[in-house]
Amino acid sequence: MNPWKKIILLFLLAAVSALCVPAQTKNESSAFNTTGFPQWAKDLRRWEIVAFGSIPFTMFFTTFGMDMYRWYNANGIDLNDRSYAPWPLKGAGAPVFDSGEFETIFKIAACLSMSIAFTDLIIVKIKRYRARKRAEALPAGTTIIHREPWPEETPADNDGNHTDDASIPAKPVPPEQPVPEKP
Q1: Whole-number mean pLDDT of the chain?
Q2: How much is the pTM?
Q3: What is the DSSP string of 79-104?
Q4: Once rounded to an integer, what is the mean pLDDT over residues 76-94?
């Protein structure tokens, strides 16, 4: 098959799939509700995010450390011979890592990322445990207040009038005031 035909077919498939995807409306919530998941699943997801999110940083620092180690072993950190120097000082034609060195760098970076994720998990569990103990130490009948941000205002049109949208919940009116009639 002609490569141009493949490209056109791929473009058409992408365009058709993009047209079939429904657009989000302003009424849909962008936050994912995690109330139905057990706590261990939330902790596992947080561990995964921290572990994979820290890999670029640990790879960078591990590669820099390996460069410094190679530079020190090759010529004792001689500033005149920069063939093994780390990345910012590396000259043209510098030797690259072989597959064994790169594998070692990746293993060290992965272990560092997992240890960062486990440290984060332990810190979160300790904070959660202390908060639970603090709540259990309160006298019986004590009200625990959870602070949340104030709900968003109803959107206003260009004239400054609030739009009448049935999907936006109305603010409660105190019982001593009469409820205004809609015009």
Answers
A1: 78
A2: 0.58
A3: SS--TT--GGG--TTPPPP-HHHHHH
A4: 73
